[in-house]
Amino acid sequence: MVTIGVYSVLAYTTARRTHEIGIRMALGAEKRDVLSLVIRMGATLVGAGIVLGIIASLAVARIIATQLWGISAYDP
User: Fold this and answer.
1) Cβ-based neighbours of 44, under 8 Å, separated by 6 or more
2) Residue 54 to residues 34, 46, 50, 67: CA-CA distances in angstroms?
3) pTM score > 0.85 for this model?
4) Which residues contact 30 (CB under 8 A, 6 or more apart)?
5) pLDDT tens digit string along 38-58?
6) How far is CA 64 from the centre of its chain?
7) Number of Cβ within a 10 Å radius of residue 60
8) Is residue 69 exposed (0-12), middle (13-18) or buried (19+ Cβ within 10 Å)?
9) Distance of CA 18 to CAs 8, 11, 22, 69, Å?
């Protein structure tokens, strides 16, 4: 499910930048340059999601820890 979400956001972002990509190609950018641009956008998106997800999960674990007695919030 996450893969579908990442794909759709990346596809939307790439579609919004089609004009820019076309100009880059017209000015001499090669396919690998454009591909690396799109991959970099995706890696940035995934990296930001991982960082925000870890921060959010640690915050929620702290909140849950106040509700638990006798076990740790980090116990599996």
Assistant:
1) none
2) 30, 12, 6, 20
3) no
4) none
5) 899 889 988 998 999 999 998
6) 26
7) 11
8) exposed
9) 15, 10, 6, 54
Contacts from 33-40 at CB under 8 Å and sequence distance 24+?
Answer: 38/10, 38/14
Q: Where are the alpha helices (DSSP H) in the chain?
A: 2-16, 18-26, 31-65
- Output the CA angle 2-37-43, nearest 5 degrees: 30
Q: Which two three-digit tokens encode residue 36? A: 């690396």
Q: Tokens 């979400």 sit at which residue? A: 5
Cα dihedral 20, 26, 28, 34 sign: positive
